C-alpha cells in the first residue's frame, strides 16, 4: 500500500486543503482566499497555489479548519434531476433533497438527468476519490431497460470490449438478461470505472436505446430498499473501503 501524505512529506495547495477539510467546495475556498479571508501562521495568503503541509496552520475568517464528522449518504436519485448544486438552465437538482443538511457534501460520480438509482454523497474527499479512481476498479452495477431484445452474441461482444467513440472503450465485467417482455429487455450490467454516459453509448453501438437506467450498486454499497427521493446515512463504511482511506 502506498505511503500517506504525512509519511511522504507531500504538501497540497491551500484550496484543496480547505476543501478536503469539509468546510466548503474548492470554488468557495478560492473565493475566500482571493478575498483575503484565509491566514496561515497568522499571515494572510492570497496565492491559491500556496502549498500547505499542516492544515492546523490554516485559519478561515479567524477560525481554524473544522474537524468535521465524515458523512456517508446513500441516496436514491429519481429521474428528472441533474447531479449538480446549481443548474444554469433552471432544472431541478439533487440538492433539493438535502436542504436539511448544513454540511458541505458532494456526489461521488454522477448520474445523468434521465438516470436513477444509487448516488453516494459525502464530505470525505479521499473516500470520494477512491470510489472514482479507475485504478481501484470499483464496480458499479446497473439495471437497464432497452427498447429491443439483446442477443447472446451482442453480450459476448460487450464482454470483449466495444468502441463507444471519443477514443474510449466500454468493457463490462458482467452482463445478464433479467427479463424480456413486449420486445424490450431488462439487463443487469456491471462495469469498473464510469465514463460519461458509458452505458447509453454502449447500447447505442448495438442500435438499442436505453429507456431506463437504474444504478443498484456502487462497490459494496447497495440501493437496497431506499425509496426514490429518500436517503440513508451510514454510521460506518465497509472495512474494504476504510482500509484504503487510511
Descriptors:
246 residues, alpha+beta, Structural Genomics Hypothetical 15.5 Kd Protein In mrcA-pckA Intergenic Region, Chain A, Alpha-Beta Plaits, Pseudouridine synthase, 9-stranded mixed β-sheet, 31% strand, disordered N terminus
Description:
The chain has about 250 residues and is α+β, with helices and mostly antiparallel strands. The chain folds into three domains: about 5-65, RNA-binding S4 domain (Structural Genomics Hypothetical 15.5 Kd Protein In mrcA-pckA Intergenic Region, Chain A), CATH 3.10.290.10; about 70-135 and about 220-245, 2-Layer Sandwich (Alpha-Beta Plaits); about 140-220, 2-Layer Sandwich (Pseudouridine synthase). The protein is about 20% helix and about 30% strand. The strands form four sheets. Strands 7, 8, 9, 10, 13, 14, 15, 16 and 17 form a nine-stranded mixed beta sheet that branches. Strands 3-2-5-6 form a four-stranded antiparallel beta sheet. Helix 2 (about 15-20) crosses helix 3 and helix 4 (about 125-130) crosses helix 7 (about 240-245). The longest helix has 9 residues, at about 25-35. The termini are close together. Mean pLDDT is about 90; it is low at about 1-10.
Level-1 CATH class name of the largest domain = Alpha Beta
Structural class: alpha+beta
What is the N-to-C order of secondary-structure elements (H for helix, E for strand)? HEHHEEEEEEEEHEHEEEEHEEEH
| Computed Rg | 21 Å
Most strands sheet = 9 strands, mixed
Q: Give the integer mean of the pLDDT values.
A: 90
Q: Classify the fold: give the CATH topology of the largest domain.
A: Alpha-Beta Plaits
CATH homologous group name of the largest domain: Pseudouridine synthase I, catalytic domain, N-terminal subdomain
| Helix segment tally | 7
Work out the count of structural domains.
3
What form results from the Cα inertia axes? Answer: elongated
Q: Estimate percent helicity.
A: 10-25%
The fraction of residues assigned to DSSP E strands is 25-35%
Determine the N-to-C terminus distance. Answer: 10 Å
Assembly type: single chain
Which architecture of the largest domain would the CATH scheme give at its second level?
Answer: 2-Layer Sandwich
Indicate the low-confidence ranges by residue numbers: 1-10
Amino acid at each position: 500500500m502506498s505511503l500517506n501524505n504525512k509519511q511522504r512529506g507531500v504538501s497540497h495547495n491551500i484550496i484543496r486543503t480547505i476543501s478536503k477539510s469539509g468546510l466548503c467546495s474548492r470554488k468557495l475556498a478560492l473565493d475566500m482566499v482571493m478575498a483575503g479571508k484565509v491566514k496561515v501562521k497568522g499571515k494572510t495568503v492570497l496565492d491559491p497555489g500556496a502549498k500547505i503541509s499542516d492544515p492546523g496552520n490554516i485559519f478561515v475568517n479567524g477560525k481554524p479548519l473544522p474537524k468535521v464528522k465524515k458523512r456517508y449518504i446513500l441516496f436514491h436519485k429519481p429521474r428528472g434531476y441533474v447531479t449538480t448544486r446549481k443548474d444554469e438552465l433552471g432544472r431541478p437538482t439533487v440538492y433539493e433533497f438535502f436542504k436539511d443538511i448544513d454540511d458541505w457534501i458532494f456526489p461521488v460520480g454522477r448520474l445523468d438527468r434521465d438516470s436513477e438509482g444509487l448516488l453516494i454523497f459525502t464530505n470525505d474527499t479521499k473516500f470520494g476519490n477512491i470510489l472514482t479512481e479507475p485504478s481501484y476498479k470499483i464496480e458499479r452495477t446497473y439495471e437497464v431497460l432497452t427498447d429491443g431484445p439483446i442477443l447472446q452474441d451482442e453480450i459476448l461482444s460487450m464482454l470483449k470490449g466495444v468502441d463507444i467513440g471519443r477514443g474510449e472503450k466500454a468493457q463490462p465485467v458482467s452482463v445478464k438478461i433479467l427479463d424480456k417482455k413486449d420486445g424490450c429487455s431488462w439487463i443487469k450490467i456491471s462495469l469498473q470505472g464510469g465514463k460519461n454516459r458509458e452505458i447509453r453509448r454502449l447500447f447505442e453501438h448495438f442500435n438499442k436505446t436505453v429507456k431506463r437506467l437504474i444504478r443498484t450498486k456502487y462497490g459494496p454499497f447497495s440501493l437496497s430498499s431506499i425509496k426514490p427521493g429518500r436517503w440513508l446515512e451510514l454510521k460506518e463504511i465497509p472495512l474494504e473501503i476504510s482500509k484504503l482511506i487510511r
